[in-house]
Amino acid sequence: MNRTIKIAGVAALLLTVAGSGCTDPTVAPKSTVTSANIFNDPNSYRSFLAKIYGGLIITGQRGPDGNPDISGIDEGFGEYLRLYWYLQEMPTDEAVIGWNDPGLPDLNRGTWGADNSMVNAMYYRVFYQVMLVNEFLRQSTDAKLDSRGQLDPTLRTDVHFYRAEARFLRALSYWHGIDLFANIPLVTENDPLGSTPPQQATRADIYAYVVSELNDIISELPPKGASTYGRATPEAAHMLLAKLYLNAGVYSGTPNYPAALTEAQAVIAGGYTLDPSFAHNFQADNNTSPELVFVAPQDGAKTQTWGGMTFLIHAGCGAAMSAGSYGVDYCWGGYRMKQQAFRLFGAGDKRAASFWLPDSALAHNDTLANGAPAQTDSVISIGDFHHGIPGPKFTNKTSGGSNGQQSGMVDTDFPIFRLADAYLIYVEANIRGGGGSVATALGYLNAIRERAYGNTSADFGVLPAVDTILAERGRELMFEAQRRTDLVRFGMFSGSAYLWAWKGGVAGGSALGAFRDLYPLPANELIANPNLTQNPGY
């Protein structure tokens, strides 16, 4: 898509580093602070990099609101990961949200156009990140440091790490860009600041550029360790490469499953382990999970935002749910599962333990005998929080049951990459002919299942058909901003081969869900619900 990028100039960033602010992020502010003098402070490089990392979570120059980085959208809605989540989840078989804010109804129904405010804001966010990285790279070359007399060996080593991390973050945003928008401009530090952006590059060209960038920086990234949690490490780069290669057929027209498997194996060999508690990956102390490869950190006191996990935790709570049970001040009554997502989960699957299932949850009618609204699994009315089962996967409670620092803002980090996904990439790539070991792939798949069920009762005896992996990814990675990409790769995002609630604006009718049953699950995979005789979806 071709859009005008409404982003602040680098001067806005320089003001941020200097502790000043501007009132209109679309107009370059006036200040005596410029790139010619701010980098005389050796600490400015770290501050600049922090702004780039922060661009995934924070929305502007002042706390959760008041001075946004991009214009044309409510600041809370315009947060990077919140926008990305909307685009990855709402047009799919996983999520529906009951709000009528501009752009959301069309995403719910999969009928958005080029004027959709959420889609446009995501595009702006991608290029805001790219712009920041490009300017950082221009200002942090060895020649620039030499010209400033910054010869301290420790500073030079740190800046070299920072440059590699910035290139990783640019690669991450370019991946999001080609995944969501296909052909987009390719702008690097070699394009002069303020110049007219080049014509759109092809998706394949940007894919090749990003792959090249990541391979170039892997050895230059800071090593995995406690001090680099939340920063880009070699393992994070391997994981991003695995995602790119897994979807290479979409991006370049030529699948590359062997490379996807190799990169996933590099992540698996990086010293991560599955957290024995699935839920811990989504709690307020998930920074202690051994499974998380790369996250967007949040701190209720220091990284305040109305997006990210603040949104995901508050908006996943509604109706008669207790906000205090999730460590927050109140429920926003936003998103729930579509019935296709809910019905993926079999009896005994602990990944469904967070689902809110009151006594009336599966009544399959609009009201109970006493006249109270029932919580139905089918989404008959998008705006009614009682339609669709809530799946509050994320919480501002720690694994020990304590609340986060604050109830309005949250401490839970957003898991961008985690080990279980690397396992599933290896499995899918192996099934698709990417090499590796069948026994190893089966072991990885069953390790995920054994954590989910607490035993071997749901293990596969042999590797299943590849479509089963799409269903397993739905169970394991639900609401983690993965689904649209997966459905596109499997050829099911568009068209009528797989229909889900509100796809193309069609509700689907009955509470049981009048949708095509592509992949029925075996009897032991059915939800323990006497009202359901089959499991629509997979």
Give a written overview of the molecule:
The protein has 538 residues and is mainly alpha-helical. The protein contains 17 helices and six strands. The protein has helices at residues 10-18, 44-54, 80-89, 104-109, 117-139, 142-147, 153-181, 203-217, 234-246, 248-251, 257-268, 308-315, 339-342, 419-431, 438-453, 466-477, 483-489; strands at residues 95-97, 184-185, 200-201, 292-296, 335-337, 414-418. A two-stranded antiparallel sheet has the order 1-5. A two-stranded antiparallel ribbon has the order 2-3. The chain has a two-stranded antiparallel ribbon with strand order 4-6. Helix 2 packs antiparallel against helix 5, helix 3 (80-89) packs across helix 5 (117-139) and helix 11 (257-268) packs antiparallel against helix 14. The longest helix is centred in the N-terminal third of the chain and has 29 residues, at 153-181. The protein is globular, with a radius of gyration of 23 Å. The model is unreliable at 1-32, 360-366 and 509-538 (pLDDT under 50).
Question: What distinguishing features does this structure have?
Answer:
538 residues, mainly alpha, two-stranded antiparallel sheet, 17 helices, 4% strand, disordered C terminus
Portion in helices: 25-40%
Q: SS-based structural class?
A: mainly alpha
Rounded radius of gyration (Å) = 23 Å
Which segments are poorly predicted (pLDDT under 50) over 5 or more consecutive residues?
1-32, 360-366, 509-538
Label the overall shape: globular
State the gist of this model:
By secondary structure, the protein is mainly alpha-helical. It has helices at residues 10-18, 44-54, 80-89, 104-109, 117-139, 142-147, 153-181, 203-217, 234-246, 248-251, 257-268, 308-315, 339-342, 419-431, 438-453, 466-477, 483-489; strands at residues 95-97, 184-185, 200-201, 292-296, 335-337, 414-418. The strands form three sheets. It has a two-stranded antiparallel ribbon with strand order 1-5. A two-stranded antiparallel sheet has the order 2-3.
